[in-house]
Each structure stands twice: as C-alpha cells, then as structure tokens.
C-alpha cells in the first residue's frame, strides 16, 4: 500500500503563499487519485482539492478556487498544493489522501479515500 507524507506547512501572514508537498512511497503513485483535505480545530475534515491519476482532471473547493492549485508529478511520486492569497480562515491541518481508481476519476469525499498522510499544520496570521 502507498505511504503518504506531507511537508511544507508553516506560519505565514495573510496574503502570503505556501506550497505543500505529498511524497508517496510504496506502489506507483500514478496508480492513485490524489486529494487534499483540511481540518480546523473543532471542525470536520473538509475537501480542498483533488486530481486524477493522469493529472488531466482537477477539482477545487469553492472556498479555495482561484487561490489554490493542485498538481502532481508522477515521475517524482509527489503531489502538490500551491496556496496563494492565504487567509486566516485557511488555518488548519492539511492532509494528503490517496485511492486507487480509473485514470480519469477524481474523488471529493473523505470516505472516498483509503490512504492518508499524517498532516501538516498551516497557520495564517492576520
């Protein structure tokens, strides 16, 4: 099974940028749909973005559309989440997730993913 490790989180001022990475080890990363989710204190885990196995299809939550961009580099077994124009309400633990599926599929639900990373903290100060 695939193992996922997030990195790139940290403290940033509002309006700043961060790029999160999701490094995959084990079976070939290109076999997995990749998603990003986040969870703020006291709230449920919520969908942020997802990308199909071949990278041709992406979906972003309305709350991050136009500010965040999901991408992947299957040759490097790594997924990315570029976050621009960050807001204090983006503060959360961000999780990378994976699932095996057809090349064109994207999945936006928490229950749709089997594999999860440990999370990386993103804090946006006002």
Furnish the topology, listing elements before pairings.
Elements: E1 3-7, E2 10-13, E3 18-25, E4 32-39, E5 46-51, E6 58-60, E7 68-73, E8 78-83, E9 92-100, E10 115-116, E11 120-125
Parallel strand pairs: 2-11
Antiparallel strand pairs: 1-3, 3-8, 4-5, 4-9, 5-6, 7-8, 9-10, 9-11
Describe this entry's structure for a reader:
With 126 residues, the chain is an all-beta fold. The protein contains no helices and eleven strands. The protein has strands at residues 3-7, 10-13, 18-25, 32-39, 46-51, 58-60, 68-73, 78-83, 92-100, 115-116, 120-125. Strands 2, 4, 5, 6, 9, 10 and 11 form a seven-stranded mixed sheet that branches. Strands 1-3-8-7 form a four-stranded antiparallel sheet, with no helix packed on it. β4 (32-39) and β5 (46-51) form a beta hairpin. The protein starts with a strand and ends with a strand. The model has no long low-confidence stretch (mean pLDDT 95).
- Return the average pLDDT rounded to an integer: 95
State the share of residues found in helices, binned by percent: under 10%
Strand content: over 45%
Residue windows where pLDDT falls under 50 for at least 5 positions: none
> Which assembly state applies to the chains in this document?
single chain
Question: How many helical stretches?
Answer: 0
How many strand segments? 11
The largest β sheet comes out as:
7 strands, mixed
Q: Whole-Å distance between the termini?
A: 40 Å
Query: Order of SSEs, N→C?
Result: EEEEEEEEEEE
